[in-house]
Design goal:
The complex is a heterodimer of chains A (about 400) and B (about 625).
Chain A: H1 2-18, H2 29-49, H3 60-81, H4 86-89, H5 91-108, E1 110-112, E2 115-120, E3 125-127, H6 128-146, H7 154-172, H8 177-194, H9 198-222, H10 229-237, H11 248-262, H12 268-271, H13 273-276, H14 288-321, H15 325-349, H16 367-399
Antiparallel strand pairs in A: 1-2, 2-3
Chain B: H1 14-44, H2 46-56, E1 58-63, E2 70-71, E3 77-89, H3 99-112, H4 116-129, E4 135-138, H5 143-151, E5 159-168, H6 176-179, E6 182-184, H7 187-190, E7 203-205, H8 208-212, H9 214-217, E8 222-228, E9 234-241, E10 248-251, H10 255-264, E11 270-276, E12 282-288, H11 302-309, H12 333-342, E13 352-354, E14 357-360, E15 363-366, E16 374-376, H13 378-384, H14 387-399, H15 405-412, H16 434-442, H17 452-459, H18 469-480, E17 484-485, E18 491-495, E19 501-504, E20 511-512, H19 517-532, H20 539-542, E21 550-556, E22 564-571, E23 578-584, H21 594-605, H22 609-612
Parallel strand pairs in B: 2-10
Antiparallel strand pairs in B: 1-8, 2-3, 3-4, 3-5, 6-7, 8-9, 10-18, 11-12, 11-23, 13-16, 14-15, 17-20, 18-19, 21-22, 22-23
The chains are: A mainly alpha (about 400), B alpha+beta (about 625).
Chain lengths: ~400, ~625
């Protein structure tokens, strides 16, 4: 009786040890927690900020953002089940799709406010530059691995940068400076994680400085317009916001006023006049963080920033866990993308970064942005799942 | 399989660990920067930004303040406010520009009797200045018209009726020239420093003391604070700042005297002044014909304005006491007398023979009515108003010294210049001099140069002399008070609504003139005799008057008109407190019209109720 019982227990134990845990158990729960927290903040903030935006439809933006988030979450879970390593094979195809999408946008894209950024589908407008971020990371990481044996060669570094530069320029030409800059950040980030020599980064830095000098100073001086005038204005407005309060400085001043007026605990959704009375431009998209600052104050902003800190910490941790270099590179690229967007967007709202039109991941309203971010998180989860699998397999090997 | 050898699981190399640490460090640094910046914005500077945000959303809509009241020296209300009904259009409900709006203006124009383009112009101007405030179409609309508009609301989209403060003049024509009118500030005036803080559409004093003391009478507009969004669309109504009524202005005017003065002139065109000889306080100052200032509460039609200014109607808006200048006739003899005595041309006792006329180089100057008064000295010459006596003084003054004795004294006593009274638009008048006439002659603006005849005419207040009743009053007051040229003034003080003084006005006298007491006495006794002694030009007017009066008649000849009647009185003799100057255009002899009017004004000044309505005409036919 006793022995049988023991035998059964041991058998069960062994079976249990051999049964692979389900995908859901192998996800990174803290990463999901951070994402869900931000999604809740986003839907609530957008909901309060846009009550009066569309007469007769107070929940227009909130409902849509909630749907985008739900779709994004679903896509994340689907992606988590796929072994990301398969994308490496498809690198040329992915790169081709990326360039194709961007070219298609230029050809058939819908023009809004002088910019061609979206392709109009029956139920959905696709902002291809957003989706392109994830595709670029997948393709570029694969190209980096192709050259990983010759990383110390300048040619490798140059090639990777050039490969990123082509889609980046296509995006900047839409014009969508913000997303273009994200593309340009992804390439060196991948090289950095892969282990490219410091001297190469120093050289890249030098080239960047020269490029900025040419774009901002030399080119306008000789009459060549590299950036649109409004892009230049926005880039330089944060240096002197009160110079031209009617134009770019206006957005900045209103944003700073909104955040400052939030004080420690915020003015509450009803009293947040900067948001409610439309003094704050783009309060559900680019300047959503200012709404958080005004409605919920320093406390609210701190909560949101803490969720981002959690997100970035988990991304970096997943980078270190990855079962292969491809996973590490993807995680590195995604971390860089998130960090860049976070700090450029938040920095913009508090007046320490130029206005570039970079969205705040998961917080800003917009299907393409939300879904792209969730796809990125799905890749991170996939890397996490694969790493846990590999570790478990190794564990079993050593056990046997 | 598809994993080639290059992509094996990398061991967590120290190199990768370092790089991950760098990324993490970078993230930490960025978070730190963001947190510090948020701390600075929200915790350290939060108050400032909160104030900015609150400012951002508020627009103010003006709530006009009622003007201060104007009361007389006894506190009787002369000008106050009443609530009128104004038809306005509200900008957010106004039909879109084009046919719909034109139709509204046409309908409003029909009802209110205004021309549609004028309505449009007025409304546009106001909305440009105050985009959120309703623009006035017409103030003070009669109740039936208002009711019509309210009952046919659908025909008047955007039109509203609001209660507004309007000036009210309970005594209508009495004192109208003192108060002046209140009207919307003009673009020109907005540039003036004195209208600082006044917004377009505000009503300010456009004449009289309303103009002079506008900054006291003007209240502080209140405001309703409206919450608006970034596009300026109304989102709600906020706090209300109550308007503050302007200060009360107390005038030195005595309403009873003012009223009697205007009645005393009857149908004559003319002006009058009653003034304290010592401090220049004006107790009454008026002009005939007068007008009812209440009509200025509404938008004045051009036809009305024409009626109020046309000469045919006697230009009722003109204040004849300070704005119309005339030859003053024999009332000027006081000046000639003072000049001759003080400059040694004659003495109080030096006599001359008045044979009825004076022949100067073939030109004959005669007394009025062919009278001859025989041998007389200066006081007697004033008493009977001997022209010949003064002709001689004029003749002698023309050759004595620089020949400008009379002109000099006329100017010392205030002729040819503004008296400085606290009313706008005062005339300066003219004291003719050789220099003046010769200059005109050189420019061929007159047919002859200066001659002694001009000085002879001046000596009796004829010819080119131009003066107004107030100037005459100031000159008489100066002699009466022993040489102080006072600055006439109407305002006594500014007070709060309870009558407590906030600011006293005490204009210091302009200057002193030295007059020998013996000379003064000679003149005063002559004036007293003129009003009391047998043969005095106004004795039959004043002989029964309970107060001892000194006074001088004047009859000015004017081209193409009947003679103008003048009278200046000083009372009580010998130390007068009041001077009263009256003139009546085409009133005939001084004793005929002006002296009886002066008598009534004096009666009011001394509170002699029984005498106030008594008209005692004099029979003297002197100039």
């Amino acid at each position: 009786m006793q022995a049988a019982s023991l035998g059964t227990t041991v058998k069960e134990f062994r079976q249990a040890g051999q049964r692979r845990p389900g995908v859901f158990q192998r996800l990174d729960p803290l990463l999901i927690l951070a994402a869900l927290g931000l999604v809740v903040c986003s839907v609530y903030t957008i909901g309060t900020a846009t009550v009066d935006d569309i007469p007769g439809d107070p929940r227009h933006y909130m409902l849509r953002q909630a749907i985008y988030c739900a779709v994004g979450l679903g896509l994340m879970l689907v992606l988590a089940r796929i072994d990301y390593s398969r994308f490496r094979e498809l690198r040329l195809g992915l790169y081709g799709v990326l360039l194709g999408l961007l070219a298609l946008t230029m050809l058939v894209g819908t023009t809004t406010r002088g910019a061609k950024r979206v392709i109009d589908l029956p139920f959905f407008e696709v902002q291809t530059s957003e989706l392109g971020k994830v595709i670029l990371i997948l393709a570029l990481a694969a190209f980096v691995i192709d050259g990983s044996r010759r990383l110390s060669e300048r040619e490798t570094t140059s090639r990777i940068i050039l490969v990123a530069l082509v889609p980046a320029l296509l995006v900047i030409a839409q014009p969508d400076l913000g997303s273009g800059l994200v593309y340009l950040v992804i390439a060196p980030a991948l090289l950095f994680v892969a282990g490219t020599k410091w001297t190469h980064f120093a050289a890249l830095g030098g080239i960047l400085a020269a490029a900025i000098a040419i774009v901002l100073i030399a080119a306008p001086a000789v009459g060549v317009e590299v950036l649109k005038p409004y892009q230049l204005d926005r880039l330089t407005a944060f240096v002197h916001p009160s110079d031209d309060p009617q134009e770019q400085g206006y957005q900045l001043n209103q944003s700073i006023t909104a955040i400052g007026a939030g004080q420690k605990t915020g003015r509450g959704a009803e009293e947040a006049t900067q948001t409610k009375l439309d003094f704050l431009p783009e309060h559900h998209t680019d300047f959503v963080f200012s709404v958080v600052g005004e409605e919920f104050g320093f406390m609210g902003a701190a909560v949101v920033l803490s969720l981002y800190a959690l997100l970035i910490w988990r991304s970096l941790r997943i980078l270190t866990m990855a079962k292969n270099l491809y996973g590490a590179l993807i995680a590195g690229g995604i971390t860089a993308m998130l960090m860049f967007q976070l700090f450029v967007n938040v920095g913009m709202t508090i007046g320490i970064m130029p206005i570039t039109g970079v969205t705040l991941p998961l917080m800003s309203y917009g299907g393409s942005s939300v879904i792209t971010t969730f796809l990125a998180l799905g890749l991170l989860q996939s890397i996490h799942v694969q790493a846990r699998d590999t570790a478990a397999a190794k564990g079993r090997e050593s056990f046997a | 399989m598809y994993l080639d050898s290059k992509d094996r699981r990398p061991a967590m190399t120290p190199k990768l660990a370092l790089r991950v640490a760098i990324i993490g460090g970078l993230a930490l640094a960025m978070f730190a920067v963001v947190f510090f910046r948020l701390w600075y914005l929200q915790v350290l500077s939060g108050d400032r930004y909160l104030a900015e945000a609150n400012d951002n959303q508020v627009r103010e809509v003006k709530v006009p303040a009622p003007r201060g009241e104007i009361v007389d020296r006894n506190g009787q209300v002369l000008v106050d406010n009443r609530v009128g009904l104004a038809v306005k259009v509200t900008p957010d409900k106004l039909p879109a520009e084009g046919e719909a709006r034109d139709q509204l203006y046409r309908r409003l124009g029909d009802v209110l009797g205004l021309k549609p383009p004028k309505i449009e112009k007025g409304v546009d101007e106001q909305l440009e200045e105050q985009p959120f405030s309703a623009a006035t179409v017409e103030q003070d609309v009669k109740l039936p018209l208002v009711q019509y508009i309210l009952e046919h609301k659908e025909q008047f989209p955007g039109a509203t009726v609001e209660r507004v403060f309007l000036r009210s003049y309970p005594h209508k024509k009495i004192g109208a020239h003192l108060f002046g009118t209140v009207g919307e500030v003009t673009q020109e005036q907005m540039k003036d420093e004195r209208y600082r803080g006044v917004a377009l559409g505000d009503r300010v004093g456009q004449g009289g003391v309303e103009y002079t003391y506008d900054r006291f009478l003007r209240g502080i507009n209140g405001a309703t604070r409206l919450q608006v969004d970034a596009l300026g669309t109304l989102r709600g109504e906020g706090a209300v700042k109550e308007p503050v009524q302007g200060k009360q202005l107390r005038l030195s005017v005595d309403f009873d005297v003012q009223q009697v003065g205007q009645q005393a002139l009857g149908d004559y065109r003319g002006g009058f002044v009653a003034m304290d000889v010592k401090n220049g306080e004006v107790l009454a100052l008026g002009s005939n014909p007068s007008f009812d200032p209440n009509q200025f509460a509404r938008v004045v039609k051009p036809s009305d304005f024409k009626r109020l200014t046309s000469e045919d109607n006697g230009a009722p808006l003109t204040n004849r006491a300070i704005q119309s200048v005339y030859p003053t006739g024999s009332t000027f003899k006081l000046i000639t007398a003072a000049a001759a005595l003080e400059e040694g041309i004659t003495t109080p006792t030096e006599t001359q023979v008045d044979g009825g006329s004076l022949n100067v180089g073939g030109q004959v100057f005669q007394n009025a009515g062919g009278a001859a008064y025989g041998t007389l000295a200066l006081p007697k010459a004033l008493q009977v108003s001997s022209d010949v006596f003064f002709y001689r003084l004029g003749q002698e003054a023309n050759s004595a010294g620089d020949g400008l004795a009379i002109q000099r004294w006329a100017e010392r006593l205030g002729f040819g210049q503004e008296t400085g009274i606290d009313l706008p638009g005062e005339a300066t008048g003219l004291v003719p001099s050789p220099e003046w006439r010769n200059r005109l002659y050189k420019k061929e603006l007159t047919d002859r140069p200066w001659s002694v005849g001009d000085n002879i005419n001046l000596s009796v207040g004829q010819g080119d002399l131009q003066a107004d009743p107030l100037q005459l009053a100031v000159a008489y007051a100066t002699v009466a008070n022993g040489g102080t040229v006072v600055t006439p003034h109407l305002a006594q003080r500014v007070e709060d609504s309870g009558g407590r003084a906030l600011q006293e006005f005490d204009p210091s006298s302009q200057r002193k003139v030295s007059i020998d007491p013996a000379n003064r006495q000679a003149i005063m006794s002559g004036l007293r005799a003129a009003a009391n002694a047998p043969g005095g030009t106004s004795t039959d007017v004043f002989k029964d008057f309970p107060v001892d009066v000194a006074g001088k008649t004047g009859t000015a000849e004017r081209n193409g008109q009947e003679d103008q009647s003048w009278y200046v009185a000083l009372a009580p003799y010998p130390n007068p407190r009041y001077v009263v100057a009256v003139t009546a255009e085409e009133g005939g002899f001084g004793a005929e019209t002006a002296a009886p009017a002066a008598r009534r004004i004096l009666a009011a000044l001394f509170d002699l109720k029984k005498e106030e309505d008594k008209v005692v005409e004099g029979s003297s036919r002197t100039r």
